[in-house]
Design a protein that fits this description.
Layout lengths: L1 H23 L2 E8 L4 E4 L3 E4 L15 E7 L5 E2 L1 E10 L12 E7 L2 E8 L8 E9 L5 E2 L3 E8 L10 E3 L4 E8 L4 H26 L1
Antiparallel strand pairs: 1-13, 2-3, 2-4, 4-11, 5-10, 6-9, 6-12, 6-13, 7-8, 7-11
Helix pairs in contact: 1-2
Length: about 210
């Protein structure tokens, strides 16, 4: 019993070590897309599609969003997302006050990754800006090469305090770990070797009885 238990433990430990080595051998794969062709919905201005050189309609209401579906090659899951979002910021007032900041939630396949803020830029604000977002602390989101990124407004800007627009040349990069081509072969060969060693060991024990 002790011999069998030790053998089973050794096999389990061997498989665990091989799995760890396989994970370590993984390489990072990534894909970069733009908001060109993205769909948008504005509660006030309706829906549409953003062209590469164009922008969405003005947005200022909670739930207004821009969404882009895209495919990757060999990226079964995503563990990080970075974005450089180009906007037309008109978050200002006409009475000399600062105005209200706008929260923009970032989602991938429906999972909230975090948010970024478009800051009110004061009296008669009218600026083109680039907002940056980076998140690499989330659990793998499995999409099997099919993903949808969404930027949704998290609050409503009061009447008379402006709006924003999203530009199509914004950039989004997603990345995840993909095993090297030889990794699965290494893992299979290791498990096979452990199995053969186990068989020979048992045959040796049987011969001594």
């Amino acid at each position: 019993m002790n011999v069998r238990f030790s053998l089973s433990s050794a096999l389990a430990s061997g498989v665990a070590i091989l799995s760890t080595l396989a994970s370590t051998a993984a390489c990072a794969a990534s894909a970069t897309v733009s908001l060109d062709g993205a769909s948008y919905l504005s509660a006030t201005n309706g829906s549409g599609t953003i062209s590469a050189a164009g922008s969405s309609q003005s947005m200022w209401t909670t739930g207004d969003y821009v969404t882009k579906a895209f495919t990757t090659s060999g990226l079964s899951s995503v563990t990080s997302l970075e974005a450089s979002i180009n906007i037309h910021n008109m978050l200002g007032t006409y009475n000399g006050t600062t105005g209200t900041d706008l929260q923009i939630n970032v989602l991938l396949n429906g999972s909230l990754l975090g948010s970024l803020n478009a800051l009110a830029c004061g009296y008669y604000c009218n600026e083109n800006q680039t907002l940056h977002f980076s998140s690499s602390a989330f659990a793998p989101i499995v999409g099997n090469d099919a993903y949808t990124v969404t930027f949704a407004l998290g609050n409503t800007i009061p009447q008379g305090e402006g709006s924003i627009r999203f530009f199509g040349d914004s950039s989004i990069t997603v990345a995840g770990a993909v095993p090297e081509p030889g990794t699965y072969g290494l893992l299979f060969a290791g498990v096979l070797g452990l199995g053969l060693s186990s068989r020979k060991f048992r045959q040796g024990l049987a011969g001594k009885r």
